[in-house]
Design brief:
Tachylectin-2, Chain A; 22 strands; 2% helix; disordered N terminus
Length: 383
C-alpha cells in the first residue's frame, strides 16, 4: 500500500498563544486518555393461504428468522474499534493494535465474518518525525466519494505529543489506491488531542474530538467544530463536556472517544470516561436534532454512566464505542472494547487485551438508547 505526504493542505486559522500555561506532564495527560445505511431493509414475505374452507386461516406474515448470535470477543487485541457498513453491503473494520505502530483494515459480508477476515496493513508509522509513535483510534469514513481515516499519533522523538491526523484515499476500494497524508487537523491549541470522529447533520459536517485545554484542571474534554473540508476546521471550537462527575474522574479526569448516533429526532453523542482500567465507562450527551449543535446549552449530559463494567458477565472497562447497523439494515449494533479481567498488572497502556465486542443496542420507550450490560463471552463448541 502506498502513502505519501500532501503538500496542498489548506491553511487554517488557529490561536498560537505561547504564553498559555504549560500543559500537564505528557505522561499524566496521555494516561488520562489512553489508559485511558446503505443496506436495504428486508421485507417479510406472506405465508400461502390454506385451501379454501370455512375454517381456513387468514394469510399472515412469516416469522423472520432470528439473526445469528454475535461472536464475542469479535476480534482479539483490537481496541478503540470502528466498524462501518458501506453501500456495497460490506462491513469495514479498523482499530488500535497493541504495538501502536500501524493502521489495519478488515472487511466482511457479515459482522461475525470480521472475526476471521484477512487483515491488511494500509499504513505504517514513520520511523522518525511526525506520525512516528502511538498510532491510536483510527476511524474510517467515506466523504465526498473518497475514503478518510482519522487517527491520533505523536512524533517518534516526542511520543506523548499526540495530535489528530488524516489520511485520504480516492480509490473506491480502501484496500487499493494511495493513502495520502493530509496532515494534522489544526485546533485552537497545540495540546494533547485525539479520538476524532466526524458526522454530517443538516448539510453541515462536524468534527468532535478530545483535547486538553490550557488552564483547565482535566486531562481531556470534548470539543466540536464545523469543517471546511475533511481535514480543516472552520469557525468556533466549542467545549461540549469536561469531566465533572465522580465516575468521569477515577484515576484521571477524562472525556474521550466520542461517537454520534442520530435517531428518534435526537443526536446521541457517547464518550468514554476515567482511566482505562475497570473504571472506564461510557457517558452520554443528547441534543435535539433541530438544535444548534455549536451551542453547548443544546446538549444534555447524563449524570450517570450508561455502560459500565459487569462482574456477572465478567467484562471490564467497556468503552471507546461506535455504532453500526446489523445485516437486516435496521437493528442498531453497539461496538466497543473491553477486557475479560478486572485486575491489571502494571500499566494498562501496556496490557494488550482490550478486545473488540459487539451487541444489539436496545431502545427505551422514550426513544433513548438502552445499552444494557456488556454481554458475556460466547461459549464455543467443545469448550
Amino acid at each position: 500500500m502506498q502513502y505519501e505526504m500532501s503538500n496542498d493542505r489548506e491553511a487554517v486559522r488557529m490561536s498560537r498563544d505561547h504564553d498559555l500555561p504549560d500543559i500537564p506532564g505528557r505522561r499524566t495527560v496521555l494516561k488520562g486518555a489512553a489508559l485511558a445505511a446503505g443496506a436495504l431493509a428486508v421485507t417479510p414475505g406472506l405465508a400461502q393461504a390454506a385451501p379454501a374452507r370455512a375454517t381456513a386461516p387468514k394469510p399472515h406474515p412469516e416469522k423472520r428468522p432470528e439473526a445469528t448470535p454475535y461472536v464475542n470477543p469479535l476480534v482479539l487485541q483490537r481496541a478503540d474499534p470502528h466498524i462501518t457498513r458501506h453501500t456495497d453491503g460490506r462491513y469495514y473494520f479498523t482499530a488500535t493494535v497493541p504495538e501502536y505502530d500501524r493502521i489495519v483494515l478488515r472487511r466482511a459480508r457479515t459482522l461475525n465474518g470480521l472475526s476471521t477476515a484477512a487483515e491488511s496493513v494500509i499504513w505504517r508509522a514513520h520511523a522518525t518525525g511526525p506520525m512516528g509513535a502511538h498510532i491510536w483510534a483510527p476511524e474510517l469514513h467515506r466523504i465526498g466519494g473518497k475514503w478518510y481515516i482519522y487517527f491520533a499519533s505523536a512524533p517518534a522523538e516526542d511520543v506523548w505529543a499526540i495530535r489528530i491526523w488524516v489520511l485520504e484515499n480516492a480509490s473506491p476500494d480502501p484496500f487499493k489506491g494511495t493513502w495520502v497524508e493530509r496532515g494534522q487537523i489544526r485546533t485552537a491549541w497545540e495540546t494533547f488531542s485525539l479520538d476524532a470522529t466526524t458526522f454530517q447533520h443538516r448539510g453541515t459536517r462536524y468534527l468532535v474530538w478530545a483535547q486538553h485545554e490550557p488552564g483547565m484542571d482535566n486531562n481531556t474534554a470534548l470539543w466540536i467544530s464545523e469543517m471546511a473540508n475533511p481535514w480543516t476546521l472552520t469557525g468556533p471550537q466549542v467545549r461540549l463536556s469536561t469531566p465533572e462527575y465522580d465516575w468521569e474522574c477515577v484515576g484521571y479526569k477524562v472525556n474521550e472517544g466520542p461517537y454520534v448516533l442520530k435517531r428518534n429526532g435526537r443526536i446521541f453523542l457517547t464518550y468514554s470516561a476515567s482511566a482505562t482500567d475497570w473504571h472506564y465507562c461510557v457517558g452520554l450527551l443528547t441534543a435535539d436534532d433541530h438544535a444548534d449543535l455549536l451551542d453547548a446549552r443544546s446538549w444534555t449530559k447524563s449524570p450517570v454512566p450508561v455502560f459500565t463494567s459487569d462482574d456477572t458477565t465478567r467484562q471490564y472497562g467497556p468503552g471507546h464505542n461506535c455504532f453500526t447497523v446489523a445485516e437486516d439494515g435496521r437493528t442498531d449494533v453497539l461496538v466497543y472494547h473491553a477486557r475479560q479481567y478486572k485486575e491489571i498488572t502494571g500499566d494498562p497502556l501496556h496490557d494488550p487485551n482490550r478486545h473488540t465486542r459487539i451487541q444489539k443496542l436496545g431502545w427505551k420507550p422514550d426513544g433513548t438508547p438502552d445499552f444494557g450490560v456488556p454481554v458475556a463471552d460466547t461459549v464455543r463448541e467443545g469448550a
